[in-house]
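Entry 12.
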Amino acid sequence: MNSTPVQRLRFCYAQADDARYVGHLDTARFWERAFRRVELPLAYTQGYNPQPRMQFAAALPVGTEGEQELLDVWLIERIEPDAWLERIRSTLPPGFRLRSICEVPLKAPAMQSQLRMARYRVHLGRALAEDELSARVGALLAQPKLLRPHHKRRHQTYDLRPLLVEMTVETGTEVVLRMLVRSGGQGNARVDEVLDALGVVDVPHHTIREELIFAGADAESK
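Predicted 3D structure (tokens):
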């Protein structure tokens, strides 16, 4: 089997509605099946159990919608991305929406290594008044440190505060918390941890990841 990649494509897609409950591994399997269905010329890894060469920018937490999720795919034959866009779109079930496909350099750095921040919005309905949430956000950001239990290392803590870049509260038909947080290998803020620190993790909410921000983007200077 020829496994030498000749093209690398970046897929931007949305994952919403019931699809937000699909875990990361199942999402990877879903895209693999979708690509096979349309006979995309996938490149495969070497070894006894070859896998399609695919790479996500960041796993989407279960229950969170993603508006601009990113997936890189390596191919063994060159294709015209625009010609395949509708072909792939037509096979996707409700909840998955392919926004765009573009070509990126074969040897470009892995997206995970370049990921720096993520932008989220959390819809909280009317369970909490805007003024009260704004006060909690202000108090949280005023803290020099926010020590939290480490979710993987028992009996250890980490400082959540340096991972919070911006937080604002908006209101309209409902109260919305917007946040820009550190993400990637240099530090990763979990939205549920932020909500817990604010004392609203048990309030019914709907979380959406709006954007992933990479090294070199304007927001990196914040």
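Annotation: The chain has two domains: 7-108, 115-221. The first helix runs from residue 24 to 37.
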